[in-house]
## 1
Amino acid sequence: MSANRTVRRIPADLSIIARDVGSLLAMEAGLMAISVGVALVFTEWYGALSFLLAAGITAAVGLGARRAFADAPEPRMKHGMIIAATGWFCVAVFGALPFLLMAYLTPSQVMQSYVSSAPESATYEAVTVFGATSRSSLVYFRNPLHAFFESMSGWTGSGLTMAVHEPTLPRTIQWWRSFMQWVGGVGVIVLTTAILARPGSGSYALYRSEAREEKIHPSIISTVQTVWKIFVLYTALAVLAMFVAISLSDYGSQLPTWQAFWQALNHAMTGLSTGGFSVTDNSIATYDSPLIETVLLPIMALGAIAFPIHYVVLSNRDAEPLWEDLQTRWLFILFGVGIVVLSLQNAAAVTSAFEATNYAGLQTVGLSAAQATAIRDSVFQWVSALSCTGFQSSGIGDWKPGGKLLLSIAMVVGGAAGSTVGGIKIIRAYTIGRGIVWQFSRVFLPESAVVTANINGRNLGRNEMEREFSEAAIVSLLWIGLLVASSIVLVNVADPSYGLSDVLFEVASAQGNVGLSSGITGPAMPSLAEGMFILNMWVGRLEIIPVLVFARSILYGLNPR
């Protein structure tokens, strides 16, 4: 491409980025338009108006950019990374509009109706945000920073929230939070590629820029369409399983059928996408149901397995790839080992977070009732952390520091690359471990020896192994560097009652796109910390490199130096 080429007097590089980011915004406008229908179903007229206005604004910008630069060349890898970074940021910015508009357009008496329908609403305190007072958490989104935070958390699948009482949110906002995570879990760019993009290398550049490598089919368009077919199938099964489980629980049996289905729908969407937003007041702890927690375990685990493995298992009707694939095998190993270690930690250090309740007859083997609860919560929270889902069944803020640090490690590692999870990914952690062993083993071999390493069926020579090791180490080092830097900032601005383990836990949750919280995140947190978490969630979703390429392009442009 000529460095001097322009499209409508705009440099070609910028026109490529503007056109494809416009496609992302056009897709988002379509999702907002769908949400207008949800508002109409629940007769939330102010919600319908808010989403209609948001969709119109987003469509005008997105389709305008797409049409203006329709003749721009196809993106290359450098463009793909910048489009991914810019696209995720812009989608989060425009995704905040429904929160902001509905918070301002909805009268206080209508907000009160949302509170009246919520359980235990009498205990909720009224708050004043930018001149409006209400007990509905919708009022928090009058603050643009809170609205942007909620949108970024939704699209990146992080699950941290500014909503103190989720049941007091309008149904349309509850839906939008879940819908963002459901789409964002698979990837905004993957969805847009499947619907809007033209076949060719440009599509693969966008696909790879979103931290995805493996293709199910030779055609990238066919690959992402297959990914969505699998995702929709799993979602339908998850909704059915959750509806049955909620209906059978003590809490759910008291709900109207439509409300049990509504909660099942939202939790299935955010569970499978490993997002973690909830429509109940205390996440999954609201139900206090071993059955619901057990049903959610495989749902969360499915979201942490790479999509190509799902495709092979479903198409061949053979479960062997679940163990043959390196990442999936290690995911199961980490699930098992982590559950045992965390259970031992929490059973040995019982706190007030663990109510004295017998579970699965564990008291018959010499455990106290509180220890039985500690083991139950350890199982669920470890799977939730490693899968980067963020559903919470326990007051983790009241855990001992050891338990918080173990969960922090799980959130840093995450699940399989090519799935919906965050973190540095299992394949990178494994490659670094193998690389260290490989480097040491070379010390004891003659210089003439041919040293190879086998990673996930790939036989790598010296140069290939060094490249793989260095790439994994660089990304992981940058990831952990940002984690440490952010922890230093947060420990200085957070309430002094939070210790270092709480701070590290909260940053790992934000940057790992998890959503578990020790209590730091909320509308009362310092604005500096809130803005930093927005950065952490954005960087974590894109695995740093696209964001660095984006920053470099701002400072020096896209041409080589």
## 2
Amino acid sequence: MNYIHNHILALIFALFAFHVYSQQNSFRTLERQFDSIENESSDKALLHAQEMVNYSIDSKNKTYLVSSYVKLATAYENLAKSDSAVVFYDKALDISRSVDSDTLFAFAVIRMSQLNSIRGDQEKIVALIFEALKKIENNPNPKQKHELYYKLSEVHRELGSFEKAEDYLQLIIKETELDYLLAAAYNSLGLIQYSNKEYDKGKANLLKSMELYKNQKDNHNICKILINLGAMHYKLKKLEKSKEYLIEASKLTKEFGYINLYSMVLINLSVIYHKEKDYEKELVYLKKAEELAKETGNYQSLSSIANNMILVYALQSDIKMVRRYIVRYRNAIDSLHNFRRNQKIFEIEAEYETSKKELEIARQKELVLTQRTHIVIAVVLVLLLSIILFMYIQRLKSQKLLYANQKELNEEKVSNLLDTHKLQKIKAYVDGQNKERERVSKDLHDGIGGNLAAIKMRLNRIKNKLPSELEPIITSVDSTYNEIRSISHDLMPKKINHLYFTDLMKELVGFSTSKDIEYKYYIHPEKKINNISESLQLTIYRIIQELITNINKHAQATEVSINITIHEEINVVNMMVEDNGNGFNTKKANSGVGLRSIKQRISDNSGLIKIDSNYGIGTIVCVELPIG
């Protein structure tokens, strides 16, 4: 039956793994298809991206959904529908935060940064870029880091900080081996040199960039390079060469549906014809650009086009058309103002919704963490209590009835704290227990211990007569004597009120030391340590006792240092126990009973513990416990 059961489980696992692999393969195919379609037609790319979103929702896969929203936003951006693009970029960012994937978040930031930069929202994009850089700083793959550096360089270039922008670009050119990043870096570097009037250098870098983009068949960026080359030759007053580049760009942008870029080409061509005083052709290109701007709702372009139209018609003395375009210019400016105001309201609402989602996600994470913590604490407590119970049964069988009564009284104390009579009864009983412990301890130490010591002395006197027969007997008596001393000592400190706590600690160190180990201890300030609460003193005592026991059993040390200090400025007691023994693996040692007991005591007192151990060097244990 077990054999059949195992095979069924293996079959289920194999089917599940195949399903996951098949799902991943299908989505990767959709992504590759989008990249190919994007270079052919922006309208088709939009439809394909919507299919990707539907597939991701059906698959209930948030990682796929982030990628799909980014692709959808990119398609809208290529169609000059920036409002829709912003909506889906923001959705991608929100989901990437909930998935808690650093690389996915960085991916969304990289794709959306260009749009936000065009819209003049540099402050927002810089904040997102640095947030993404922090998230991926430990990622060994530098690809996304370089992409984010490139986006930063673009922001600096647009703000006129050319030196800072060039620093990022040179770093990318030096470090990356990715052609698409090199192409983007050469393009930006060429634009900076163009702005600095270093036209020859700028042209060389733009041509380098275009060659790389042609190898990748990246038509969108090829169009951008052509526009940049056209603008550069215009500055060089090579108008015919400038027109060649721009006309080639107009064909490509129109063919592939890059509406934003097509509009930019038309405006640039109109500027050239204005320079040549060919106002009829200028008007042709301006009117085409105006149609596109109306179609896409680009009020910035509409205002710029209207302004150029006013100038052309003024030169032609067409007052009627001048007045018409003055009205259109004002309308475009008003619409642009309203759009920005509405966009600000939209962003505030989106920020509010995002904060609500983040708060809900944080609450869910906190709830899960709390539940897990409770489960872990419960398991640890159960294990710890089981171990403690087993040890007490083995070591203190003679006090079984006494401990049973103590447990009953403790339970009665918890449930009846407000009953004064019962509290007094419990106190009296506990005092009786302490007296009984003290009596048993003295009897063991003074009675049986004394007798064994006397027997050992007599055996030592006659040892020379019968050495072979008496040696094992003396060893056994010595071991029994030490065990009785240990039991007697463990029974005594349940109530630390018969002497100063610091004296008791010195007594513990003196009693527990091995003849092969040199112990040094430092307690300061003794007066204040003696005045801390009895419960905290008992905790310190037990921790030091357990650490000494572990050193004697396992460390094979020759030197041990014990320091107990009060730090008044932060109101804590600090303990540091250091040995020069073998050292140990701190991860594996977490399963030890003694160390778990120490950690539980520290946790019960809201303290901290740090263990530093190296093989062959030794171990340092630092403990901090709050006072009060």
## 3
Amino acid sequence: MDVLPQKALIELVIVLVIALILMGLLMNPKTFMRKKNNGQNEEKRKRTPQISTSVLIYNTIGKIISLIISIVLLVGAVYCTKTTKAVKKVAGNTTTVTTFNLYVMKNDNYTKLSDLKDQFIGFVPSVSTDAYTQASSKLNEALSYKTNNYKHTDDAADALYKSKVEAVFLSDAYGTVMKKRHPTFAKDTKVLWSVTITTSDKLAASDKDITKEPFVLYIAGVDSRHSITETSRADVNMLITVNPKTHQILLTSIPRDSFVPLANTNYQFKDKLTHACLFGTTNSVKTINHLMDLNIDFYARVGFKMVIKLVDAVGGVKIYSDKDFVPWTDHSVHVKKGWQTMNGKTALAFARERKTYEEGDRHRGANQQAVVKALIKKISSSSTYLTKYDEIVDAIAGSFQTNITATQLKSLVKYQLNKSPKWQMMSSVLNGESEKVTGGYMMPNTALYYMILNQSSINENRQYIVDMLANKKITVQKDQTLATAEDTDNSTASSNTSSASSTAASTTTSNSSTSTSNTSTNSSNTTVNNQTTRRTYTNTNRTSNYRKTTRYNSSRYRRAYR
């Protein structure tokens, strides 16, 4: 019962004590009845034992109360056991499962591993991780072969297509990356042999008392096909800063295509932020720490399937959409303009949508924040927690991982249920501009769209977090490019306060002058007289200041992020 609210425990104890007293009275009514004609009546009772109707009624009622108490205790024990198991399953769980495949061309005549004896196999040692090292050792034990090493995954794939090697050894998680270089990679190749390696992220959780001290939680939203432990890209990269003293929560989204130095390369090479998670969640945390000069306290991996389950478990969430559209990820869903109650399937499609919006990935981040806000609002309601308790636990278990300890997680749940604080939720999305460049770490020879983040935006968003960690109450500068009707419709928004805000709000009081100057700098790049502008590129190639990176602006295209 260590996760139940204190008030509920006290009330439960009082009810049980009263019930036990009543049960005692009813089960032994003769103790409280007058005894008349003790001698004579006692003699009669000894000769002919009789049970009066009133005694039978009292005993029956007492047994019913006893049964009710037993059921209450049994249900309580079941709930506590289930909660404890769920908390243990998600808290402190940093297990990662990675599958490595040996790919050969489908038209080749290889049918079993031994067919590759003494043949050349392509490896990419530069992407080495603990799992990769273990998997390579397993292959060494199973086969004798020759090695060709490559710097990048697309180099290894090219070698396979050009028959410079007979096979390549790559993580199954790189499948989506391969499609960019070779769109028919899955059809052209087959897996001859595979091995699955289980490892654990080595990032220790902070020892903060999260009911008293502000903290930063990194959320990695992963589209794992099988299990939350499966290695995959992080399509959602969000920092949640919580201050239990000021009762403020700040959601900071970093676009998945942000071109950032990766921790696993010792920050020497850049790639999309989403690819950092292919080398472990810890790698994503370190990459973001370096990018924003922070020290993230905790992380959590959230499977997209959990969003569907959790939203449905709480009976849907009320969210505002500034557009009417059919999501490109799920054509069976229709998102209407305005306030609406979304089920899990609709909420997930809404959170993944980017093609509908001019702001693309940034607006997707704002949609994701809207879903998170709505869920926090709904779940933090004690009535929802108590009535939907079983469904919430089932939704979270198996689709959520975090390095927060079980003790910390339990204390946070108790804090919310005991104190029921009214949280002020704010949000912000880092901005930048989209450019098509080559030189990305995973696929250096392929020109891809990356978001080049504005340093002023990084600085501004970092300052918000730093101020919150210093126990300062902040406001966040409103982002006009992400503003929706809910910002001006106070009467409607009040019915679902902050649950679906997809915009940022206010500037830090301690750093207002700096934030203002940064904001004006950003605005000059993105707006003219409050009208959105786009950068237009022509057919030019130029070398950038990024390490070994060339920007290819082939064929005119117009695309911008702010």
## 4
Amino acid sequence: MAKKPTSPDKTKAAAKPAKPTAPAKKPAAAAPSPAPVIPAAPTQETLPLEPAPVEVVATETPVEAVVPAAPEVVAAIAEPVPAEPETAAVVVEPVAAEPEAVTAVVETVPVEPEAAVVEPEAAEIVAEPVPAAPPLIDPEPEGEPAEPQSTHVEEPLPDQEPVEVHLEEPEVHHHHRPSLFIVQIAPEMAPVAKVGGLADVVFGLTRELAIRGNHVEIILPKYSGMRYDHIYDLKEVYKDLWVPWYDGAIHCTVYFGFVYDRKCFFIEPHSNDNFFNRGSIYGFKDDVLRYAFFSRAAIEFLWKSGKHPDIIHCHDWQTALVPVFLYEFYQRLGMTHPRVCLTIHNFQHQGVTGAELLKATGLHDPARFFDYNRLRDNQHPNALNLLKGGIVYSNFVTTVSPRYAYETKDQGQGFGLEPTLHTHHLKYGGVVNGIDYDVWNPEVDRHIPAQYGVDTIERKYDDKRALRHRLMLADNAKPIVAFIGRLDPQKGLDLVRHAIFYSLQRDAQFVLLGSSPYQGINEDFWNLKRMLNESPDCHLEIGFDEELSHLIYAGADMILVPSRFEPCGLTQLIALRYGTVPVVRSVGGLADTVFDKDYSHRALHERNGYVFENYDGTGLESALGRAISCYYEYPDHFRELMKNGMRSDNSWNHPGRDYLNIYDYIREK
């Protein structure tokens, strides 16, 4: 890769290169952990019905069944003497019971059996086990009801040996899930409009659902600052969409285009409010009204265009009013088929607003919607909560990891929505996000100089040298600890700052890539960057560079995620794919995906990182210190951790299946 310029204030000179293919200190270590075995994803199938079981009647005294004889059927009874050629145990394949069927009687007392003659239509005969002549059917233990066996022999003819007939395997009929029409309504989707992880989730999930045979469409706002270079064949498809707003209506135009094979509709309102032509996606005082309008426009477009999807999947508070509009307005207009799934990516943002929302959207019954059981905020009785309304009106609500679902409902991380989640707990659960392996895959990543996989992991060190060269770090045997993410208080910025100095103290290098929406936080990290600018082992890149993020994931040895709370987190999932060992705090999705090398109860081949519990410097050092020590003292163990992470499946395969199961669950409700 060609050398790329770094920040203008970077004046360090790189040390003389050396090739650190592995840490120098390598004491004897235990054998590496075995390769993990990824369980096969279960498939739904409908097995054929078993044959009708034989009804067995046990008697305490000898009983014989005598029925008028018929020449067509011969009843063969196992004799208590050695079997002769003419004598054989005959079992007639069970058939559906008819009125003429005769139930055989099995005796539980050892007596000499009498011959039983049955009618010609159907007969079910089970031979009593006799020690003297091994039967063709394994006998059941004495005293337990006998089950019908699958072995079947033809009736012997005179002077002919019994012929055994092998039944063919029954045909298995697989149940194929019907193709669903799914509409995703979201405020973001990578790469055309991206602020955070929500955009990546919408992009990855829609592709997985389409791969599984479903028709998937996405509805987005048409932002002026979108990446139009990623939209193919953008064209106008609906010219006159009039969306009710206050006492009138706003004229909108709907466009259609493909974003890497994803079918996307973009809604552009023509209004003096200038809802989506502002240069950025969020950060305005009227954000609640902007996205309330978008929600109404999206559902209005579905109705006017005659689309009746099986599932409408909404995301976060920005589209939480969609189920409210559907059930308050559009069901009575004929949209009775769609069911709604709402995914909450972060409970911290809920869309709390005042009564003005009702006037704007046409929800003209304040007493109804200010009810505690509908949209009234749990903490502010004079406010409306859009996210709460979405929870109440949706058919199912998910969040982005099982642990985060538990924390928001039972551990006080619901930001006031805990009572609502308890009320609707039967339709609430967590599904861990996946990552797009077409984008995040070191075997095919075009942003890194050396592609590699589990079997060629030594090539990762070529990317490590390339990262050091680009950031002008010393090329030595030290491990690289990295942080990639938004500089937000949620991400544990005080622990990130602590980790920088702790890593340098423990003979490790540190790389940071990120920026903050808050000017004060950006200034703090710029000051920290100036302080450490001359260090050959530290580089802070304030901003975001997509290409550089790929190189850091590939070149770093460890990734740090010390979040205060973390709904799911994509950073650790990407790091695992690139063989970069995550050091995380045990919260939310981090606890669901990273398992401590030393203290996890998981099998050795499933352990993939280092975890700490307490949000403080001591907790951070306990995990990061163990990781650095393992890198130096037990390089074989550290290499096995890297491989464990790369072998795990963190794609959209399993989440896609889970969401389809949820869709099936709510479709008939």
